[in-house]
Amino acid sequence: MIEIIEGIDENIFAQAEKLWDITGVSNQQRGDTLSSVLRTVEVGGRFYTAREGRRVVGVCWLTTDGRRLFVHHMAVHPDFQNRGIGRMLLDIAVAYSDKLGQKCKLEVHSDNAAARHLYESVGFSQLDGYIVFIRWD
After folding, report:
1. Which of 9, 19, 42, 46 is in the most buried spot, having the most CB atoms within 10 Å?
2. Are strands 68-76 and 103-106 parallel, antiparallel or unpaired?
3. 3-state secondary structure string, the chain?
4. pLDDT tens digits along 71-103
5. Where along the chain do its domains lie?
6. What pTM did the predictor assign?
7. CA gap 72, 2 in Å, rounded
8. Which residues, 6+ apart, have CB-to-CB distance to 110 below 8 Å?
């Protein structure tokens, strides 16, 4: 049975990092660390895990800038995909954004058709005309 738990510690973060690597959502350049996640949680963010027993099979990290809620590194282990876990995590994110009265925003790689389908099915739409830029250093 899958349960969704809020919170993060060293063990959960280690499992999340492995999951991000397996699913391809991680990127060393982003510099996401346990301390960076904890800082975001201290200022209104959330970190949710989908677990089967003690095993983390899905994650959803949320941050807020006070205007928008951002979904980061949402991932479900390939062995557990297509079971509704991603939708459960996304529903929690949307409910939290509604509670805060903030728009919910996320980024997805253009090649990730399954994730795009999930996001569209929950009511997300592509923000036409925008290209994402980032400065790595």
Report:
1. 19
2. parallel
3. CEEEEECCCHHHHHHHHHHHHHHCCCCHHHCCCHHHHHHHHHCCCEEEEEEECCEEEEEEEEEECCCEEEEEEEEECHHHCCCCHHHHHHHHHHHHHHHHCCEEEECCCCCCHHHHHHHHHCCCCCCCCCCCCCCCC
4. 998 999 999 999 999 999 999 999 999 999 999
5. 2-121
6. 0.88
7. 21
8. none
- On whether the 2-121 domain is CATH 3.40.630.30, my answer is yes
**What does the angle CA 32 – CA 34 – CA 39 come to, to the nearest 5 degrees?**
90
Torsions phi, psi for 72 (to 5 deg): -115, 145
Residues 6+ apart with CB under 8 A from 41: 8, 47
CB 61 within 8 A of CB 47: yes
Nearest to 45 by CA among 6, 90, 98, 86: 6
The closest alpha carbon to 32, from 14, 49, 56, belongs to 14
Question: Token pair of 112, please?
Answer: 């990730």
